[in-house]
## 1
Amino acid sequence: MDAMENLSLTEIALLEYERPAIEKGYANQTLCIDISRMTIQIKEVTEQMKHLFIGGKGFDLWLLWNAVKGKTRWNDPKNALCIASGPMGGTSIYPGSGKSIVTCISPLTGSVMDSNVGGHFGPYLKFSGFDALEVTGKTDKEIIVFIDGVDQKIRIFASTGGPDNAYDLSGMLNRHFSLGNPRHISVVSTGPGARHTLFGCLNFSWYDAKRQITRYKQAGRGGIGTVFADKGLRALVARWDDVKADANRPADLVSLKALGRAYSREITELDPKQNEMSRIGTTHLVSIMNDHDLLPVHNFQFGRHPGAELIGKEVFRHLFDKGYDGCWPGCTVACSHGVKDFVPITGPYRGKKVFVDGPEYETIAGCGSNIGIFDPYTIVEMNFYCDAYGLDTISVGTAMAFAMECFEKGLITAGHTGGMDLSFGNRAAALELLHQMACGEGFGRIIGQGVRKMKELFSMQFGTDPAILKDIGMESKGLEFSEYISKESLAQQGGYGLALKGPQHDEAWLIFLDMVHNFMPSFEQKAEALHWFPMFRTWFSLCGLCKLPWNDIVPEDNKYTAEPAKVIQHVQWYAGYFSAVTGRKVGPEDLIAMSEPVYNFQRIFNLKMGFGKREHDTIPYRAAGPVTAVEYEARLQRYDSQLIEKHGLDISGKTTEEKIVLLRRFREEQYEMLKDAVYKRRGWTPNGIPTIETVKRLGIDFPDVLALLRENGVDR
């Protein structure tokens, strides 16, 4: 039977175009599609855009800013779904150069969301002639957009029939559009879970020639897949036929090749001695986090568990299928592993052999230890169904963990859950909740609204004390926490609470520097780290790059450098890489300066959407310290010592509950003092808003930006 027999496509719009030559990493135009009116436009990329916004997330933010108003909500037709790579995206001779960045207004936060993802779509989009894609509008049809860079046509189809889940749909579209060359196709899709939850993810595909299957990476955070599904998008498909070393037409190909060879040699030599990412991906982090009391267990109550080794790297070393597993050509980190011939025991794939992409650390911690599950097969099955249904594994795990703790504390009951026992470690319940999310049924539908909505519902409808929900509900700005314990690292509390989109570790991961090594004892040192690291990490998303090669494999002499966490040799290489591609000569500190305008612009964008102030940089107390007696007593010696030695208190005769109150006062005061230091370092007001002086210095003093600042009381 023909692969497309059950899927009908009807062309409803067509644009033939002339593909521009890529020059120094840029196509110099963007593609704008309005699916309300089924119109297709091509817009110029200006020199100002390239200078200020660089590419990637910067281009996304600029397109989104001009598409939405302050009152635009996530399900408004004006909300734009933007996808871009960056000037270095698509380079096949420098590790980690295949990223796409997706941006929109989030259903979870109500503000700007961005997600960095692998797969081939972003580079294929650029090589097809577009530095970014902007999709606005909404339709009651199911739409497939085909960007054919080979035949130079943009086609919009109405679709009916065919599979609902991401795996089958992407594979089917690959076979249909590839004309016998499946490596030429990349598909962006989601699944039924995105339609029925607020934390739907997007799957970005690439074709694994060795295994002859379509594989996936996820743009997971903030409900981007939910926006995609709400618009009526079923899939985006890009076709490109040839990825060469000089595909970006770099300014200096000789220097680019030399840098790429040096970096690849280093990774090939050192990765087997360090984290073995080419063999076990990010699963090595499980044992490291557990050893340092940082692995989230039972809704972030605890940081270690004796069962952690059951879901750690040695288990997945045997479960992962052997072979090269890079999600973009030329990446020697090759960390995109998967489990072959896995057989789910529940759901629509029960009893069938499937290939599972992952799991990575965040999924293992979120859908494993944080909900009390230490069975790798259950985690793999949850990973598979999250991808098939289009669900973010981080939000799934953190939201489930919150519901499970509420159940164990008696804050919700079996009467609320439809009779389901939501005790930690209940594998059958966790899987059943996933299937309910995909269908929008049962208690899974409630969990699918995210932690913030659950807190409101449990309080208003179930009569639960909102104070305890606030303390243990692990969300900030509406986004669920990613999977690290931040209780003992004030800097990481800031890294989560001050992150622009919400508590995701891709802005700043400072736990080891702060908690383990004590490299930043003062507020000023923490503030400096919370300036440099978010700026440098932002830079990767401007350029279309993966962060893993930067600091997960490091030079052997790196520990002897002045600031080992920055991996300065690699920063220098990245500066050379940017210079070689774009012809814009930069040094290491210029990379930070490049990110500042975009970073501050995104903060101002949050302000435009009604957020972006000090009050929005809050975190649940569990992210800062122990909420319950059992948490305090799990780290009794540490907390008692801090009260006595650091704060000079006599705690003799005090109950655990009394000590919790004392510790909380100090920790909450410290967090507010950290905000003050970070705002000052970033050039923001005490209310967390960039000053007019700052935006002028950064060149983002557009009239609407200045007007917005003045509306919010900023006049200098």
Note: Residues 656-682 form the longest helix (27 residues).
## 2
Amino acid sequence: MLRRLTIKNYALIQSLEMEPSGHLNVITGETGAGKSIMLGAIGLLLGNRADTKVLWDDQEKCIIEGTFNIDAYELKPLFEELDLDYANETFIRREISPGGKSRAFINDTPVTLDALRRVGGRLMDVHSQHETLELGNQSFQLHLIDSYAGNAKIKGSYEQAWKNFSAARKKFEKLSEEANQLGEEADYVNFQLEELIEARLEEDELEKLEQELKVAEHAEEIKVRLQSTSQLLNESEFSVSRALAEVKSHLQTIASWSKQYEGLLQRLETARLEIEDLGDEISREEDRVEFDPERAEWVKQRLSTLYHLMTKHRVNDTAALLQLQASLSERAQLTGNVDGALADAQEKLREAEKVLLQSATELRATRQKAFAPLQKQITALLKELGIPNATLDIELSETTPGPSGADRIDLLFSANKGVPPRPLAQVASGGEFSRLMFCVKYVMAEKTAIPTLVLDEIDNGISGEIAIRLGQLMKLMARKHQLITISHLPQIAAQGDTHYFVYKDNTAKKTVSSIRLLSESERIEEIAKMIGGNNPSRIALENAQELLSGAAQ
């Protein structure tokens, strides 16, 4: 539902703001006062392409903002798909700079025009008899039938079956495409895999072997250094251990005279024990160091093998080689079992198709049940709106399964007696089409949450009692759904919960279109003018009061 609409610097509009009610909003005004300009601005908010010629002041940017309550529209999945922050109160903004640059935002996040159209189309439905209407669109006709049938659960089951079928088909097609390639590369994959298996790779092996080789290559020097270190620490006449023992003797003599001396003795003892332990470990290391020419040669050859494999496969360590080996192993298994894998994928595809066709049949049955009551209700509404000989048929034909089912729906319409129903584009005039579209929207509004519906002079070509009935139907529809209608008929203007008046202000150097919400007395005056002209008579004023009183009942 549209909470607030702001238009700045657009065409004849310098600045305009309105907060429509959640029910029926009527907009009236003189011809050329700017009613259609408002629709153009709303179109920009919904993703229509922009032109700098629309700027009222070509030195300032145009800003159009809409605030919507979208709690009832179940749009969280769409917002997630578009990576947008979802909020029940959502803000949409469109900006057009003097230089021609256009920007769009949803909840202050920049979006493309395509994203704006996808979200905007779920928030507002602008209907003008001068535009190509969506009523002839196949997806819209299916949506109409599904909304009326109330088959959301069965349709959801079908959509899941379609997803499963699509995934199974994609997997089968991919395997089919890869089958020849897998056969051709089988020998190459197996050769590479065998080479890696024969290498008996171990993780972190490279680092360990490189370290071992360094020790082997410097074994003699390492042994000499360790022996010298061991002697200095423990074995020579002037070793560190002997010196520390003498220091300990001196400190023991004085330790009982001061806590500080006692602390020094304790620290010395800790250091002495650590040095003794260090000496023992160095001695053990020195015993272990031996130069083994055969082992050194083996390490060199092993490293050469690893370096060769790493260079060949363009990796940096044995862990990456092991990952490659695992990948090649999977590939080899697939290569060796491609026929079995293909047969398995084909069987799963058959099973998924069977479930899909069963689900499509169930979905078709729910749709067919809705045809008769939907035709009856829409035909009755059309008769109320001045098309007494209206006939609406719904034709169903089976088609290849797709995301929405395996059905093609065609609405066939005739407005005249003796004329067989035919596709809408061939038989309906603008006025008839508009009334048919309104009846469809009216029926859908009873079944589901529809977007804010904007009707542009849908009442062209009707008058009198039919106009009153159209206004009453709008009023009924607007009890649950927000409607904004641009009208030139007093019978419809009187039905509005709110009444906005669009007018031109020529007092300044440049004409400006403005809009204002009419008070009760102003509504009587405006409706009287719609009945009797700019200087309405007393009778016109009484008729206006009567229309408003009748609408309030």
Note: The mean pLDDT is 85.
## 3
Amino acid sequence: MIKSSNIFLCSCETSQKVDAKAIGEALGLEATPKLYSHLCRTQIGELKTATPDDGAPVICCTQETPVLMEFWQELTEASGAEATSPVFVNIRETAGWSQQGDKAAPKMAALIAEAQVKVAGAGTVSFNSSGNTLVIGRDETALAAAKRLVGHLNVSLLLDGKTDITPPSLANLPVYCGKVVTATGHLGNYTVTVDGLGILEPSSRDSGTFKDVSGAGELQADIIIDLRGDVPLFRAAEKRDGYLRVDIGDKSAVERTLFDALNMVGEFEKPRYIEYNSATCAHSRSNIVACTRCIDICPTGALISADEKIVVDAHVCAGCGSCAGTCPTGAITYQYSGADGLHDRARALLETYAKAGGENPVLLIKDQDFGDDVISIISRSGPGLPANVLPFTVNEVTQVGLETLLAFGAFGVSAIMIVANPRKADETDGLDFQIELANTIFEGLGYGTQRIRLLIEQDPSVIEEILSSTASLSQMPGKPFIVNGPKRSSLSAALRTLHTYAPAPVDRVALPKGAPLGSVTIDVEGCTLCLSCVGSCPTGALKSNPEAPQLRFSTGACVQCGLCQKTCPEKVITLTPEIDFTQGVRDSVILKEEAPFECITCGKPFATASSIKLMTEKLKGHAMFSAEGAMDRLKMCEICRVADIVNAGSDPWDTGQRRGPKTTDDYLKERNDED
């Protein structure tokens, strides 16, 4: 635990009430931390009292982060100590600047405790741009824009479909024409496919004359500036690094775009947001496609199917996390502030809040951009956040999955409110469904309705009214617990806890179609125990018994991907989306079993009675089994079957005299006979 000397509380010139004693007690500090009033200016020298050996200092101010960070770096450099970055916590807009600020001590302590939770970071993916820029347009505006960049970038101009421009008197950039067909790639590596690619002739006088570029139909670029005013070349174009699309009617926007292009030269890095594990993926088996949730939900097209696996283009991925949130098996995991980190932070937040005497916590999940802006406006121009509303920052709200929502509910909250940016409303379909599933489970167990809400509102005052209305909600029974490990184990732990504390526990909760939880039933009469479903199941929910003909099912492992249903040759499998609380995580039930079929010659068990019955029915009357006793060979083991064929002296491939080839004369004779 960090020492009190390393916690810097500030009342911000007494604009907020900070109860240092209550905060210190909630954090379990040996002494009450000192309270400052002007830490970022006249009292900034007090940072010298921090002792780096006792952990990174926690500075409860975010507005003046640049000033405080610069001073701290000077301190560490002067002392020769190993540099440790301070932890900055916002307790002013989130807690102190509120009409209920005098009740905000539990929230302040909780925010400080959460900020100290260390979360594993993510890897990075690199971009390398040399500044090769392709301007795509249709008129003089595109030519003028391209000319503006000459001298700063290596520029080419592509006139999409039209050539009615006055040729430039100075050939300081190549000018092409042609119809754009497709574009692929990312910053530093774009390829534009052009139909009828031609290049401007030097002899062009009053209008452009173009010569076909033989053997070429592609243009390469590091940066694309799209001035066509047409449909974007990419899905979620605003998320594609290095692709700049602007309305040519907005002159100031065009200028900003040209300026942005100048800053896209060099080496860049961004987080590798997601990781993919094909071993647990339910996408495809044996050329049978089942689960496509991640591909369907990805706004940028960064995920594609190839060789029965999901291929992730980390350069295109924009980090929304929808794929990880909807993935039923956990094959796709969000690395940038992943689920384990979210659970640890929320646990610390809610545990400290309760220890400090806080009641009826409402978890406010928001991103760092739009969400912070909303909170800032509410605190500066409105009544501020209620004392029981605990802000919880994630990279993107769409990264939150079902296991996280259920775990937060099981921690014991009154409600979960998720604030989403209205400009990204079209990306929330996956999150909407996760919320629907979680609310269905809460309601089915008696926790009440609409415990989770997605707020897509442009007006902060509307959000503030909704948050204020949560004061009447009762707290759900539960308490924080450790939730770590793979997605399915986290989900199972949350479900067990919810069922334990449920006001109205039931054995089963029905779920909507598409839910990643459910059971499998089979038509026992039609099943032959071929076990094709076992081989196709990606999670091991369906298993065989090596000791006896048996098909077993574990409901805790089933993700309702449908591979078993599509693979089953007899089409006797039915999926039912539901939660069955009567089975444990590792428990399994027998769907079908039967006694093994014994060889009629030696008595060796070698198959199932249902499979032998099916074969004899389908092969009855077949030429290969028309001889006397041939059908009995289907009831023999592999050794006795061969011995019977040898002893009988018959050729199983002998189907009688073959018919000769049919000639033209034969066809003519048949026709004459018919006439």
Note: The longest strand covers residues 175-186.
## 4
Amino acid sequence: MKPPLVLLGLLCLISCAVPGQEAWAQSPATELTIEAIFAEGGITGRTPETLEWSPDGKKISFVQRDASGEHGELWYVDAANGQKAVLVGETKLASLAPPATKIADERQKEWATRYAVAAYHWAPDSKHLLFDSHGQLWYYGLESGTGVQLTSSPDPSSDPKFSPDGRYVSYVRKHDVWTRALPDGGERQLTHSDSDDTLNGEVDWVYAEELDVRSNYFWSPESRQIVFLQMNEKPVPTYPITDWLPLHPRVEEQKYPKAGDPNPEVRLGVVNGNGGKVRWIDFGEEYKNLYIPRFGWVREGVLYFEVLNRLQNRIELYFADASNGHTRQVLSETSPTWIEVNDDFHVLKSGDRFLWKSWRDGHEQLYLYGFDQQNPLGGEAKQVAQLTRGEFEVFKVNHVDEAAGLVFFTANAEDAKQRQLYSVKLDGSDFRRITQEKGTHQTLFSDDGGQYIDRFTALMTPPRFALCRTAAGPEAADSCQGFWESRSLEQYSVVTPEFLEFKAADGKTRLYGELLLPRQSSGKVPLILNPYGGPGVQRVDDDWAGATALFDQVMAQGGFAVLCVDNRGMSARGREFAAALRSEFGKVELQDQLAALDQVLQRYPQLDSSRVGFWGWSYGGYMTLYAMTHSDRFKAGVAVAPVTDWKLYDSIYTERYMGVPGENEAGYKASSPTTGAANLKGHLLLVHGTSDDNVHFQNSVQMIQAFVKAGVAYDLQVYPNKTHSIAGAEARVHLFHRILAQFERELMLPTPATGTGASQP
């Protein structure tokens, strides 16, 4: 589970020849409104989409759309001089890469936006582009300025790729892998699915959502073969997603393994790029029911793949001979909690070493391993060095410069709330910080590593993009040249939140919090808690939170204080901090939230302890229900798209932290808000989209049934056909007005409501 995409207000209007920041006509101290936050064009501007380096490292390309999102151009920045120009104009781009807003189906639209499906891809020769026009592929020549349509099937093609030599394009269609020779060769079907339950090279929902898998097939380095994952979804149960709006409702069956359900059966196959018989990798029948979260090529003829057990506390790395399917385990690791799957397995160009990331010492750190280059399957890999160490997290390997003997990576070494770029030598020496400005840096390196794109944000700084030369230390700031910046917030009377520290309920663990106080207030101030609470997410950080941050400002304008605290169980603080919620959701999280609440009320006497609200989305929605059924501290709450019984959520996420239901019945029961429905305190607004394919609408239905049985009143807001994000300006404006009205009605009353149960609707 991940937080929903609530950053839809960060849009941009192109009104001049070059994209960037534009002047505003509003007068100073313009009032923030919900309508302005979620309007097309937004408050701070539409950020560039699909930033990519050309393979030759000479250009940075990106799609820039106007305020409506309907019109856009493909721009590039010349890496040599920083100058910007249009690569593909609006008229051509409209047909080659129409915006996601043109996708009618809400679930398909959410897939494209949630998983950042790229609108275009660079060819290896840096002279051609491949565009994905909502399932139809176009091959575009930059010199000729013309496009050739590669596919015209009524069935959409997805996950397109160039072969490394640029001679072929591959894609997935109707659950199979296809290739087409360029520029005008015929297409060839490489795999043959026997039913809609068999996915060859295609990613299913649960792998995409919970293992961050974005592709399930890969070309070999010399473009001779393709390795792919086959997923058999036949044993996976289905969930009905109903479109209630037509005269005769339509039902779509979603394959969705819930906690304890059968997962997709998986196996790896290798096929020649020009077709032929599939060769299956031999790693035993028992592995069909485990996870293969990552796989690819060590070199031509040699594969790697990772195997994760169902409890996700053991991972094994295998090498395989692509010619005969033989395998060898070269590394294994067991965790006392669970394994964090990542993308940082990286084979060095030397061909005899690889990078491996692990939190075996309690924090995510980088390790260097060696293996026999001549005989990769001849023995286990050996640890050569631990490259990083300390009480911080390494989030991503950004680039490896073997010539210089350097690894570049993102970490929070000096401040848990920041993300900075660092480098370290391949022997573990010379640990250096590259980026200097306090905040959050996300970087994208050119293939040669000489330059990178830096996307920078901070708590009150919306995104800005710069082209930077690789340098370390204080001189790094002078090596960057900005090429896009969000609109300023200066015209609004915004208030900067204050970072705070608290003690957790255990009396020793440090918690980070963020408090936003209204600029002006008379008398006591009502307080609203807005945590996420769950694993895998950090909310309190020095980063721009987009529409979430702007809505908090609207709340502050209305006289509310807003508190966000990262309780134990959340991420970026090490294994022990994350594992505090293992086997029972809700308990530790709420204890920490209440401990922080007591401390903030003591420090800020202007806050009114009798008028405290709680709201959240997804896991935050679950936290709202859990808090209001396990505490009497909250007078009102809003739970958006909440899990209400963890047996209803997907297998990979839930079992990672809770185990299999049959082995932890007590934990599942204690974690479910439905079991405490009769204890609801305060006035609850329950919100859900009927087409939510992540946290199913079934969750709210079962919560409603529990309230009905308990004779407890609540309010309900349903959004027809909306998915987990409840996306779209109309729906967002409606929803956030409802949230604001809920707290205005319940927390702005002159005196506390009385009664023994929940407020009546």
Note: The first strand starts at residue 49 and ends at 53.
